[in-house]
DNA sequence: ATTTATTTTGTTAATTTGACAAAATAAATC
DNA sequence: GATTTATTTTGTCAAATTAACAAAATAAAT
């Protein structure tokens, strides 16, 4: 049966479900690239996903929503729970860099809280992970709370993260790709109005491959969930692209059945 | 932030991660139908999924494997973690029938264990759920352990289950359907050798729709992961169907990329 | 009017899907 | 040994989809 290598007694803060946390991989689409919301602890070199504990009176979805909204100010986000991580290495003593980061953070706490908090962090945590889709243009990121810096980072520039958070991000991207056909990325990741090529670039960013412009446009328009508006005047010396928006009624139905790509 | 309706202190059994459990939806293919492994508590009318607690030294995957192997004797099963359930109603006091069942079970315990065990069961549990695919023909179900009866039940005959276990089963079926193209159902659910029509019936059972026999056969054979063997002699007055088995090397590659259906 | 970059539509071959029908098969029975 | 029977296997063909390129249309600025 189960091995019991280290039998650590389970400490916890009253009112909080012990041993459980929630982590969120928040996707946003900025400057034609997919970005993820990451946190950096001040005075350290450690980055982390936005996350938090689960309160005893709270549902997980609610908690994930709160985590995201406290950073972004947006409170109706598209949530997708994709995996629960439970590796025995999920504690702050496993990697040297994490341990050092923790010491720096502990030093800022009142003396009497340091020991208990440290003990909390060397327990193995089970973390249920969500990916979250939101319209980055609407977001006003709160850059600094509790000495944590919040930033949009593009997928190609993700630094080393705390614990197994890199693995979580990677798994989130794979989940995003796999579920793409059933996700309302048009509603959630795009601004109110957008150009066709912008929409295509989003698909390309998620799928990680080039799509034919002509074929993409024809396919999307045939699905019939885009409403064409006036053109976007950039001041450039070329034809202005049309702007499009989503016909929500049509789109919701299509997404429920799955948009084949 | 999080509401704290009922602030119950978190009790737990030493060595076990508090508030967390694992539940398994075990799929098997029997008599041309999909079945699920269910448990019935003796002397009650309550059915449940096979499940258990998470030990502090154990990974979740390992735990799910143990749960299944203790019931079936099989210890290399195909696991797929699909969701973590955290509703505030996930405790044995929520539904009257569950509560009565619990009382019956408690009565069988030694006096001194009754109160503590009851207190454990009225806490909200977070349950990470797996679906498991295995070859039902290999399984020798252990029908009775700890006063629990273990049975294969076909999807159309699933009774009312304890807690939110019906919801868990339904979500497992939906997950099975959605991930079908990436699941090695041929290796895991079918016996060593099988007929084409049997294989087709499996697909039909999962997808819940009729498939054209000719087209199915052509498509599968074109994929090239089936090896044809001798015919199956049933004694019936008709052409004997060929038996097929899986070419694992080819199949694994195809499943990794996704077999389109 | 011309330049320019981008959108939009066309075209075509190749492939896949869906629906149905016909042929082949082989064991058992008469 | 011919016949019956149920099932597998192959055939056909129209319709739809995909993939890859090419050409045309567009409109703002020069």
**For the record, what CATH class of the largest domain in chain A applies?**
Alpha Beta
Class from helix and strand fractions of chain A: alpha+beta
Q: What's the shape of chain A?
A: elongated
Largest Cβ-defined interface: A-B, 38 and 38 residues
Give me the CATH superfamily of the largest domain in chain A.
Answer: Nucleoside Triphosphate Pyrophosphohydrolase
What is the number of strand segments of chain A? 10
Oligomer: homodimer
Number of domains of chain A: 2
Q: Whole-number average pLDDT of chain A?
A: 89
Q: Stretches of chain A where pLDDT falls below 50 for ≥5 residues?
A: 1-9
* Topology pattern of chain A, helix = H, strand = E: EEEEHEHHEEEHHHHEEH
* Major sheet size, sense and barrel closure of chain A: 8 strands, mixed
* CATH fold label of the largest domain in chain A: Nucleoside Triphosphate Pyrophosphohydrolase
Describe the structure.
2 copies of one chain form a homodimer. The first copy, chain A, is α+β, with helices and mostly antiparallel strands. Chain A folds into 2 domains: 16-181, Nucleoside Triphosphate Pyrophosphohydrolase (Alpha-Beta Complex), CATH 3.90.79; 189-257, Arc Repressor Mutant, subunit A. Helices cover 34% and strands 26% of the residues of chain A. Chain A has helices spanning 60-72, 96-107, 111-121, 165-179, 185-189, 196-207, 213-223, 248-257; strands at residues 16-30, 33-41, 47-48, 51-55, 78-85, 126-133, 144-145, 148-154, 226-231, 242-246. In chain A, strand 2 (33-41) and strand 3 form a beta hairpin. Mean pLDDT of chain A is 89; it is low at 1-9. The interface between A and B is large, with 38 and 38 residues. Chain A binds a DNA duplex (30 and 30 nucleotides) through helix 7.
